[in-house]
Amino acid sequence: MTVKAAAAKRPMSASARKARNLNILRIAALAIIVIIVLIPFYISFLYSIKTHSDISLNRLAWPQNPTLDNYRRVINENKYVGIGFKNSLLTTIPTVVILLFATSMASYVLARNSGPFYKVMYSIFISGVLVPFQCIMLPLYMNIYNLGLVSTNLGFILARSGLQVSISVLAITGFVKGIPRELEQAAAIDGCGKFGTFWRIVFPLMMPINVTQGVLNTLYVWNDYSTAVVLLRDDSSRTLPLAQIIYFGENMSELNLAFAFFMLAMLPVLVLYLCTQRFIVSGIMSGAVKG
Amino acid sequence: MTVINTGRKRRLTTYFLREHGGNLLFMLPAFALFAFVELIPFLQSIPISFTDKKAIFAKAWNYVGFSNYAKLITNRTFQDTFLHTAHFTLIYILGANLMGLMLALMIWRGSRLNNLVRTLLFMPFTVSLVASTKVWSYVYTDVLMPITGQPSPLGLTSQVIPGLAVIAIWRDMGYCMLIYIAGLQSIPLEYYEAASVEGASWWTKFFRITVPMLMPAITSNVTLILAWGLRCFDYSQMVITMKAAKTTAVFVYEYIFGNSRAGIGQAAAIILTLVLVVLTNVITVILRRREVEL
Questions:
Q1: CB B75: neighbour CB atoms within 10 A?
Q2: What's the distance, CA B284 to chain centroid?
Q3: Cα A128 from chain centroid?
Q4: Where do the domains of chain B lie?
Q5: Residue B292 has pLDDT above 70, yes or no
Q6: What are the tens digits of pLDDT across the range A256-287?
Q7: By the CB < 8 Å criterion, does B179 face chain A?
Q8: Residue range A211-228: mean pLDDT, rounded
Q9: pLDDT tens column, B185-218
Q10: Alpha carbon of residue A266 to chain centroid
Q11: SS3 string of chain B?
């Protein structure tokens, strides 16, 4: 109140008033946009805490008896929730860890060497972003089948890791180019070998981009549908997106349970994003334009 | 220079090898993964597209030259799926970029409120494409239908592609926004100050300073969304009963895994790849040229 009063008393120039009004308009517009963007999240949450009768009575109204029973029921009654979680965790975590080490090492070399050989290697690595998955789908499926890895976690881990290499190398190489070389040169003079220099000096400096790319890779793998539908053919190998869609098709009448399943599948990555959002937002901003 | 004795030469060679060998070792894990999943299958995929291979593991097949490609180009279903893909991609590129740029212009300055809004607007990117489509089908019927009186676009032949594109824009405009914010933050404020002194209007400054300086970000966003749009599979697959929403990626999947026409399906995938490569290069060249003009 007092601040407002003081602001009102102070004579305001026309341009300052115009700027203030514009800012109020901006904040109002942002509020409306944010609300619209969040509606799908709100609906998912709302439907997931409604009883069956509540949801058929009036979908958008706040439930008379909000309940977490849907979550309990979907976990207990649908064995594919457990299977989906197990498979998604057992494929996403190894993939992200493999990519963390493999792509940060490769990107370090590609960022620090400028000879024609390394330029060609870099071009080959990032050309992968131009190849749609559908183009390599058939030979990849045949190769993985011949190795006996269809419908296995290992097959899916290999495929998803390979598919993320290009985009990861692109982002991390751009970031490493921005790290000054002085520290590495000092370490080399002190007799630190290539491996030592990388692990002790460069790898820790790559933390921001590795967190960013790690979370993005987690999102891509956790949410993957098109690769999973090709490579994971057994019921017992289903990851969460596959399990969700099949469950949704079979239980159209029990929307509340389907949405509880959606929420369960979404929450881990949503929480991961919200915990690391400071890195993600700045990481995407710093890496993207340079590439 | 000319009097390098052999001992030193050998030392230099071993040094060079050690240096090079270490680098190769560092690249090996990533390259092995890349080769196994992308490079080798890509090289295998080209010959398959010239065969009349039917089932995936069929033993008997012949090379048929370009006949798969010729068949596809005159095939009505393929043409349709290609038009659907192009339609989807066009709306998706325009929508995600215009929304992303507009939002970036509103919140590019660093402040607590702006940071919060950035975090919230990027949130849809964490939702899977399939879940996005399912949830949006309820947004269309339960929220938008009571307000506008219009039935869900996902059930209408004429509107299903725009309906899906809206979902994709909702999901990815936050990503474009972050890249535009980075671009905006890198523009020196002096340019705007100088323009203001000369009495330039907001629009003049926008088109003469902001847009040219943002060209690298625009190139990056347009080519990224182009690549995501042309490989659109998940969204289309979620409304599989709608023929009007079938994309080329779904066509490829159905021909290879559903209809046992692997050769034709693979040829369709190669056409899709060629279109993506050509369009990406054309767009990059056009946008890069504008970059230099400043």
A1: 15
A2: 13
A3: 19
A4: 67-293
A5: no
A6: 888 999 999 999 999 999 999 888 877 777 66
A7: yes
A8: 95
A9: 888 999 999 998 988 888 899 999 999 999 989 9
A10: 11
A11: CCCCCHHHHHHHHHHHHHHHHHHHHHHHHHHHHHHHHHHHHHHHHHHHCCECCCCCCCCCCCECCCHHHHHHHHCHHHHHHHHHHHHHHHHHHHHHHHHHHHHHHHHCCCCHHHHHHHHHHHHHHHCCHHHHHHHHHHHHHHHHHHHHCCCCHHHCCCCHHHHHHHHHHHHHHHHHHHHHHHHHHCCCHHHHHHHHHCCCCHHHHHHHHHHHHHHHHHHHHHHHHHHHHHCCCHHHHHCCCCHHHCCHHHHHHHHHHHCCCHHHHHHHHHHHHHHHHHHHHHHHHHHHHHHHHC
- Whole-number pLDDT of residue B86: 97
- Out of 3.30.70.100, 1.10.565.10, 1.10.3720.10, 2.60.120.230, the CATH code matching B67-293 is 1.10.3720.10
A219 touches chain B (CB under 8 A): yes
pLDDT more than 70, % of chain A: 93
Whether A228 and A241 have beta carbons less than 8 Å apart is answered as yes
- Give me Rg for the CA atoms of chain B: 25
Angle, alpha carbons B117-B122-B125 (nearest 5°): 160
Report the residue count for chain B.
Answer: 294
Cβ–Cβ under 8 Å, residues A270 and A224: no
Residue B15, number of CB atoms within 10 A of its CB: 10
pLDDT at residue B95 is higher than 90: yes
Contact (CB<8Å) B135/A121: no
Give the Cα separation of B32 and A36 in Å (integer): 44
Across A26-54, average pLDDT: 93
Tell me how far apart the alpha carbons of residues B242 and A235 are, in angstroms, rounded to a whole number: 26
Residues of A in contact with B237 (CB under 8 A): 225-226, 229
Q: Tell which wins on pLDDT, B3 or A115.
A: A115
Q: What residues 36-55 of chain B have any CB closer than 8 A to a CB of chain A?
A: 36-42, 44-45, 48
What is the rounded CA–CA span in Å between residue B88 and residue B24?
42
Domains (ranges, CATH) in chain A?
Answer: 78-288 (1.10.3720.10)
Lowest mean pLDDT among A200-214, A218-232, A276-290: A276-290
Confirm if A280 and A210 have CB atoms less than 8 A apart: no
Cβ atoms of B49 and B269 closer than 8 Å: yes
φ, ψ (nearest 5 deg) of residue A60: -85, -20
Cβ–Cβ < 8 Å for A109, A118: yes
Cβ <8 Å between A285 and B179: yes
Residue % of chain B over a pLDDT of 70: 93
**Nearest-CA neighbor of B171 among B276, B244, B83, B100?**
B100
Mean pLDDT of B226-233: 95
- A251 touching B, CB under 8 A? no
pTM of the shown model: 0.90
